[in-house]
Hints:
The chain contains 8 helices and 7 strands, in the order ααααβαβαββαβαββ. By secondary structure, it is of the alpha/beta class. The longest helix is centred in the first third of the chain and has 21 residues, at 23-43.
Amino acid sequence: MIGQTQEQQLREGLAALGLALDAATVTRLLAYLALLLKWNKTYSLTAITEPERMVSHHLLDSLAALTPIAGAQPRRLLDVGSGGGQPGIPFAIVRPDWHLTLLDSNHKKTTFLRQAVIELGLPNVQVVCDRVENVSGEPFDLITSRAFADLGDFVRLTRQLLAPKGQWAALKGVQPFEEIAALPADIASRIQALAVPGLGAERCIVWMEPRA
């Protein structure tokens, strides 16, 4: 993919994922990368700043999980430890019908997220700067995270925020068998492998839900 523009790389990756997005959505996804790169100079949001790697690591890595998560038919989603906005911002751009809350306790990161929401025009996104254990309110159909904590802590800290019949979807790299083995006995789990175009690394979703 060296020598390709970010748009060419993104369009090829979207095709590989089976995602048919219009030109305006593609433009908005690339605008998000530009914002991430711009703010990273001051706020240290990501270590990956090479243009050819940003598409695969920040956009396609998130969007590879979009179709599986859409299958759960969520209405309200919580992205815990959202950091620079993955997967929450790409999800919000592609699925304006979803209502997403992006949660992070880091003030600099949530400042960036709020600005991204404004500049990208994402009325379906709420940004919260707080620790997850302090959050309350209407529960969520689906709670996701990309790099927040191990699975046991993820479930323990967010359990009060999960709606009845809701699910957790943790985006992970190598399949975390030890973390799954350490989950509470009343949590059912399954692993769904993901193929991320251009990434060259293992990715998966660990689905979890309370046993009936």
